[in-house]
Amino acid sequence: MSRAFLIVLDSVGCGGAPDAADFGDAGANTLAHIAQACAEGRADVGRSGPLNLPNLDGLGLGRAITLASGDAAPNLTATPTGAWGAATEVSVGKDTPSGHWELAGLPVPWNWTYFPTGGDAFSPDLVADVCRAAGVDGILGNCHAAGIPIMERLGSEHMKTGHPICYTSADSVFQIAAHEESFGLERLYDLCRALAPRLHADKVGRVIARPFVGTPETGFTRTTNRKDFAILPPAPTLCDWVQDAGRHVYAIGKIGDIFSMRGIDEVCKGSDATLMTHLVDHAKNAVDGSLTFANFVEFDSLYGHPRDVAGYARALEWFDAALPAFFAELRPDDLVIFTADHGNDPTWTGSDHTRERVPVLCHGVGARALGHIGFADVAASVADHLNIAGQGPGRSFL
């Protein structure tokens, strides 16, 4: 019985979303702009030269970028040996739950709640709830911010006062950064868990624990112990379809958090380097008929939001170079789909996600152009490959 591997490269968009202007993102193109910066020598930190992604490009990455946006991606010009296309999202968002749910066959049926950008981001009532749940008399932040800069700016004061650092972004999120040792990792999780029901009731998509370590003297660093407390999907997703058919669902990375563990049998977490080891192990050992659903988040969290073009390019090249070991463990009838959930163009203004189409690259189904497809078509195609019933609006491209 064949298996399926659905691998999300978090934020690796390819431009061209027809409604990008509605989000202030007209012209954003994560992959094309990185490739152009590399070709022009503007991303030569820890790497050099044109963007080198022979394995992903061999599946059709360059073709997908041009299909999505019309933009050129220098050095991504291979003749595809895989199936390739570009997917367009219908959910009104450019965030993790919207992208992942729709890739799993469930377009978001509501509008998310976002926090105001001017003045305090959070109401006095919400701040009071945070203080009660944390047992403190105040919070830090209370604003829109990128995670690494606000951690660096307020980390010292946080350690002195014990006040959690609370902030948001252009996404529907309430994020809490806290020191793993002085505040406590489990205490941070408990705080996020306590606040999640109230925020979910208001259609805020996620409460995110953002732990860090370090000192004011040596600097602060995020750890890999991030945890997302996401709103429960309002209907079955691909994970449920597979599990309800009596099959096994493996989650790699933050997939379990995104789907609130519904439809998930096993979870592996860690840094992206650790997750790649898990992915190779799953290619070797995942049971017949199973789905392995993976998210590699560091493209987004470490390089997209901080607008680090060279770092993003390095991460893409690292990921691509690791793929032969993964491919070597696959079985001839396995399906692998590489895609993304949104964009996060590191050449763009600000520090937030960008509304983009995403590439869809398939290994194991021959070489062909898929054309323009929908996010939900990914779920329908996985279900088709696994010979199980799909319940969403998508159509299989297999």
Report on this model:
- By secondary structure, the chain is of the alpha/beta class.
- It has 13 helices and 14 strands.
- The chain is globular.
- The shape is globular
Q: What profile does the largest beta sheet have?
A: 8 strands, mixed
Rg from C-alpha positions?
20 Å
Overall helicity: 25-40%
The tally of strands reads: 14
Order of helices and strands: EHHHEHHEHEEHEEEHEHEHEHHEEEH
Strand content: 15-25%
The number of distinct helices, counting runs of at least 4 residues, comes to: 13
Mean pLDDT: 96
Low-confidence stretches: none
First and last CA, distance? 17 Å
Strand order of the largest sheet: 10-9-11-1-12-13-2-14
Estimated structural class: alpha/beta
List keywords for this structure.
13 helices, about 400 residues, alpha/beta, 6-stranded mixed sheet
Entry summary:
The protein has 398 residues and is of the alpha/beta class.
Write the layout of secondary structure elements.
Elements (H helix, E strand, L loop, with lengths): L3 E6 L20 H10 L14 H6 L1 H9 L13 E6 L7 H8 L20 H11 L5 E5 L2 H15 L3 E4 L4 E7 H22 L4 E10 L3 E4 L4 E4 L7 H7 L4 E4 L2 H4 L7 E3 L3 H14 L5 E6 L1 H7 L4 H21 L5 E5 L18 E6 L4 E7 H12 L12
Parallel strand pairs: 1-11, 1-12, 2-14, 3-4, 5-6, 9-10, 9-11
Antiparallel strand pairs: 2-13, 4-5, 6-7, 6-8, 12-13
Helix pairs in contact: 1-12, 5-7, 10-12, 11-12
